[in-house]
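Before a colleague's protein record goes any further, I have to sign it off. Thanks in advance; the entry in question is below:
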Amino acid sequence: MAKGFKISFHKSSQQACLVVNKKRIYLGKWPNWPGEPPARVVDEFNRQVAKVAGEGKVTRLKVESTLILSELAALWITWARGRYSNPQTADDLRRSLSTLLVMFGREPASSIGPRKIADYQKRLAKEGRTRQGILKSSSHVRQMFAWATAQELIDPTQLVAIRSMQPLRHGAIAAPESAIREPVAIEVMRATLPHLSATVQDMVRIQALTGMRPAEVCELSMGEIDPVSWVYSPAEHKMAHLGRRRVVPLIGEAIAIIKRHDAGDGSPVFSPARCVDQWRDEKRAKRKSKVQPSQLDRSKDDPKVAPGDRYTTNTYRRAIQRACARARKLDPTHPTWSPNQLRKLAAQSVADAVGLDAARALLGHADGAITRRHYAVLDLDRARHAAEQLAKVLS
C-alpha cells in the first residue's frame, strides 16, 4: 500500500473515506463495515490515491483494516443484545470490557495480544477485583475475539495467541479470592420474611421450594406452565441459547402461591405494580379515620417513576437486602443474603436428603460436577460420622 494512504470509515455518514492532509475525501457508502469494502469503494480509493500521488495510472493498493478495539467492542455488544434475550447479559459483557477499553480502546484491535490482556488483568486486580472476577472478565474478552474471528474481522492467529494464555491459578496474581457463598440458613430466611412485602415473601418461598434461578422466578407466568402437569418450562433461561429445555415441577404450596398471584392476563405472576396496589388497599382498609373524597386516590396520572409489571433480578435482590437491613434493627447479627443463596439452599437440602443427582435434576444442570462445585457440597455431618466410624475400626 502506498505510504501515508489508508481507507477509513466515517460513522456519521456511513461512508468510506480517505484522509489526506487533514482533508476527508469520501469514497462512497460502506454498508457492510467492518467487512470488506465494496469494489466500487476500492476503485474510487485507488483513483483518488493515484490522483493525489500524481500518478498517471491507477495502481491497485491493498486495503488495510482500521478497526480499533472500541469499535470492535461496540459491534460485539450490539450482536450480544440481539443474541441473548436477557438484556443483563449484554450489560455484564460491556462492564467486563470497560477497563480494557480505557487502557487500549483507541488502539487497533489487531494489536491486542496476551501481554496486553495480562496488563488488563493486573489493572483489574489493582481495582480490587477478585481472582474469580478477573477470570470471568478475561473469558468475556476471549469470547469477543472468538466472535471477531468468526466474522473475519481479525486474523485467526490472534485468537490462537490469546487462547494460549494460562488461566489464573490460585496465587498467580495479587488479587483476593472470592468468598464462598453458603446457602442461606432456613432460620435466617424465615426471620427475613416478615420484613418483605407479601409478594416478595411468596417469591422467596417459591424459589426455596423449587430451586429456580432468580430470573426464572421474576419471569414466571401461567403461559409457560402446563395447567395439567403443573410443570414450568420457561422459553428463555440461562441455557436456552444452547438448545436446552428447562423444566421445573410445581407441587403443593408452590401451586397455591401461583394461583394466589396470577392475574389471568398472561402477565408475570409476581408484579411490582400489583404489589403496590395491594399495599395501598391494605393501608386504606386499616385506616380508622374517615377518608376525605379528595384523598381516595392520590396517585399521579403520569408519575416520573412507576412500578413495572415484573420484577428484575436486581429489584428482587434489593428488596431482600432492604429487608435484611430492617431485620438487623431487631437482631444486629442478622446477615444479608441474596436470592442465589435460596437456590443453594434448595440444592443442598435435596442433595442431603435424596442425593446429588436429584439436586442436579432439580436445578436443571446437565453435568453433576457443576452442582457439586457451586451448589451442593458434601454433608459435613456425614463426613464427620464416617471419620468417627473409621477411627473406631482402626483403633
